[in-house]
Amino acid sequence: MPSRNLLFINGPNLNLLGTREPHIYGSTTLPDVEAAAKQQAASLSISLATFQSNHEGAIVDRIQAARDEGVDAIVINPGAFTHTSVAIRDALLGVGIPYVELHVSNVHAREEWRRHSYFTDKAVAMVCGMGGSRVHGGY
Questions:
Q1: What is the pTM for the complete model shown?
Q2: Which CATH homologous superfamily contains domain 5-128?
Q3: Catalytic residue among 99, 103, 118, 139
Q4: Where do the annotations place substrate binding (predicted)?
Q5: In this predicted model, which residue has the larger pLDDT, 133 or 41?
Q6: Of 5, 9, 21, 102, which sees the most CB atoms within 10 A?
Q7: Which residues are annotated as a binding site?
Q8: Is 118 a known active-site residue?
């Protein structure tokens, strides 16, 4: 049975989409991405909640709250926390909610240090390099 209650989390600096290094991240803003994702989810009768924070602890708190809310799956772009956050990884594993790791840019074609992720090995899937507007649904 497909998930019906999804949580879409965006980490640090993703609030700057549309203005931050548009040659890498594109010109689509986070509100545009979230609106398109919500529209796509609604067309599939899926509830989609969104959350963005530049603070690691706030993301951990949001992930932990997701279990009590009955979230079926999480889509997360951990941003720079991809390469540093054992705390967010542990929160995802601790709640037992399946998750998809998402990145706007192709992290594998960038700096060597961006190629390491604390999330990929436990993710249901990992999507990267599709930009902010090239994938149907906005992300």
A1: 0.82
A2: Dehydroquinase, class II (3.40.50.9100)
A3: 103
A4: 77, 83, 90, 104-105, 114
A5: 41
A6: 9
A7: 77, 83, 90, 104-105, 114
A8: no
Mean local confidence (pLDDT), 88-105: 91
Residues contributing to the annotated binding site for substrate = 77, 83, 90, 104-105, 114
> Tokens 């709640």 belong to which residue?
95
Cα–Cα distance between 7 and 74 in angstroms, integer?
Answer: 5
Annotated catalytic residue 103? yes
The Cα 9–Cα 93 span in angstroms is 15
Provide the CA 40 distance to its chain's centre, in angstroms: 16
- The owner of tokens 């640090």 is 12
For the chain, give the percent of residues with pLDDT over 70.
77
